[in-house]
Amino acid sequence: MARTRASITDLAQQLGVSVSTVSRALSDHPGISDSTKKRVWKLAKELHYQPNHLAAGLRKGRSNLLGVLVPHIDGHFFTLVVKGIETIASKAGYNIMICQSNEDVTHERKNIETLLSAQVEGILVSMSRTTRDFKHFEKVRKQEIPLVFFDRVLDGLDVNAVVLDDREGGYQSTKHLIAQGCRRIAHFGGPQHLNIYKNRRQGYVDALLEAGMPIEEELFFYCDMTLEDGIAGMQQMLALPHPPDAIFSASDFSVVGALQELKRQGFRSPQDIALAGFSNETFTSLTEPMLTSVDQRCEQMGQSAVRLFLEMLEERGSIFSPRRIVLQPDLLIRTSSQRLTTKG
Amino acid sequence: MARTRASITDLAQQLGVSVSTVSRALSDHPGISDSTKKRVWKLAKELHYQPNHLAAGLRKGRSNLLGVLVPHIDGHFFTLVVKGIETIASKAGYNIMICQSNEDVTHERKNIETLLSAQVEGILVSMSRTTRDFKHFEKVRKQEIPLVFFDRVLDGLDVNAVVLDDREGGYQSTKHLIAQGCRRIAHFGGPQHLNIYKNRRQGYVDALLEAGMPIEEELFFYCDMTLEDGIAGMQQMLALPHPPDAIFSASDFSVVGALQELKRQGFRSPQDIALAGFSNETFTSLTEPMLTSVDQRCEQMGQSAVRLFLEMLEERGSIFSPRRIVLQPDLLIRTSSQRLTTKG
DNA sequence: TACGTTTGCACAAATAGTTGCACAGGGTTT
DNA sequence: AAACCCTGTGCAACTATTTGTGCAAACGTA
């Protein structure tokens, strides 16, 4: 392996010049004559010379590596965020190293360790669902490696983060349902220690209060936001003596489950129960009825995270006060929540 | 930055031992006394020592990096494959570096360059749609870096690859449609220079021939397999003097488009036209009717690709004859293709 | 006490590349 | 002709880590 790969030393020997000359020639340094440069470039091509970024990075104290740590990459959301990250990062000359925590803190801790020892120059992270403490991230800080959170952030921490205005998303959704004439709106919520679910719920509550509607305990259903949870939640709601006429769910997956159960029991949406979800998953415009949802600006979130990282790099040394970028959600009204035929 | 990070040298100085002793102590080498090891470990913890994999990699001639190059990671398929790759790779001690070609050869060439200079120990790649030559991959070979293709492979090349038996998938789908009583089956196909689409089409043709049915030119519709293409394809089919009674599409996206158009024109599936797609996208079990599709064993494909890479590493030096792993598809029969109420 | 073995560690070379400094040689200036 | 500068290149040190070799000290045995 090392045998077949030509190094800068090999080039130098064959050309009868010093290693440093080759190095400078390859990087088009002004202190090297054109003729020498051309000789170097020619031989480099002939020998299939491949610069070793590891070695260069070692000397320069840089790796050009950006670490990304997400709970998983199967869904729609993180995938798009990663895409956004990749786009901007590669423009700035960075390669990304992706780790998945699989929603598991232990894994997450290990991943952080891995990224650090890979000498990443920054870490972009969205916390796992099971993360409740911050110790493993402190380590990153101590090494003065830029750390940017996105989407999922531990509350009350003074960290750099790019988040969606989840409260606003929940608020707009619920307000829309109210405007459609719904008077008993249930909420399917996720784990409340996660900022995103807490805020979506808060938006829901705010909208109800604003409309002078009561907050009823029996209209809340907390779960892990899977399709199955949605089915269970809908069963629970339909079993109520006085079932709701709308559901605002903090996830599209549980809303599609709810829809299935609703249909199975012979009801229709939006006529019997209006539905609104969150995340604008691909399938929301493919179900019947199409599901109202909230777009999370996934790609933009990834891009902003990288930009924030780049800013931190620039301002390294100076006192960098943590910044929080808040993206505005986009309510996408589809059939599942349209009870009024608002024509014209 | 380098300032704040303690190196093995710093440890050595503070402890008054040599650098090599620290190195061996950290790796629990038997030639170091327990007391020394303990002193080293203690100080390492105190100084937040972080091993530098770049330097270690340089010395050992290894990077523990595995390159992954995919057309994109937004869909369902590549995402799951990457997940499979990550799982096995991280078990084997590898980190993965992901690049997206965005279905563009130029980008793909650049990505290969990037991965090579990052000193990856192997490259797993699924070609972009626009790739028609092999030159940039030859470079990888010349450097004797294990190269494994998955899913999309240029035909007729003697390379290592993990692919799905796409022909079999197309064959089973079509055969199933025939068994359901369909007599005029159309095919929505993708770019035919890609092995996957060519083979899916071949399976379709084989099944028809086997059943003694004619291959009719007007029943083929070639496109890029988007939802919009599916709509256009369905329009074309419904405009025929004698429309088909079933469609086998090489992608789920175009089949969902076809379904939408079908409904819009007041027809029903499977009653009027039976539908079968390919890829088992998440949404296939959420539409109405649920869509028959072919599962591509995404995660298994990723896992197999890594395993193939590991095998190549082991057998490096000896003559390694290219291997091709063929995974068997899994036909998932759902409502959109069930015309017979096969009970019991 | 002499010899052999083991133990624990230091030294130095090696990995690939970058960079400050020095130096040679030529041309220009005074 | 001496002093000067500029250009192009080489030398050596430096990045963090690993690893083969070798040297002392300690220990056991004869």
Automatic annotation (TrEMBL), chains A, B:
<dbReference type="Pfam" id="PF00356">
    <property type="entry name" value="LacI"/>
</dbReference>
<dbReference type="GO" id="GO:0003677">
    <property type="term" value="F:DNA binding"/>
</dbReference>
<keyword id="KW-0804">Transcription</keyword>
<dbReference type="InterPro" id="IPR010982">
    <property type="entry name" value="Lambda_DNA-bd_dom_sf"/>
</dbReference>
<dbReference type="InterPro" id="IPR000843">
    <property type="entry name" value="HTH_LacI"/>
</dbReference>
<keyword id="KW-0805">Transcription regulation</keyword>
<keyword id="KW-0238">DNA-binding</keyword>
<dbReference type="Pfam" id="PF00532">
    <property type="entry name" value="Peripla_BP_1"/>
</dbReference>
<dbReference type="InterPro" id="IPR028082">
    <property type="entry name" value="Peripla_BP_I"/>
</dbReference>
<protein>
    <submittedName>
        <fullName>LacI family DNA-binding transcriptional regulator</fullName>
    </submittedName>
</protein>
<feature type="domain" description="HTH lacI-type">
    <location>
        <begin position="6"/>
        <end position="60"/>
    </location>
</feature>
<dbReference type="InterPro" id="IPR001761">
    <property type="entry name" value="Peripla_BP/Lac1_sug-bd_dom"/>
</dbReference>
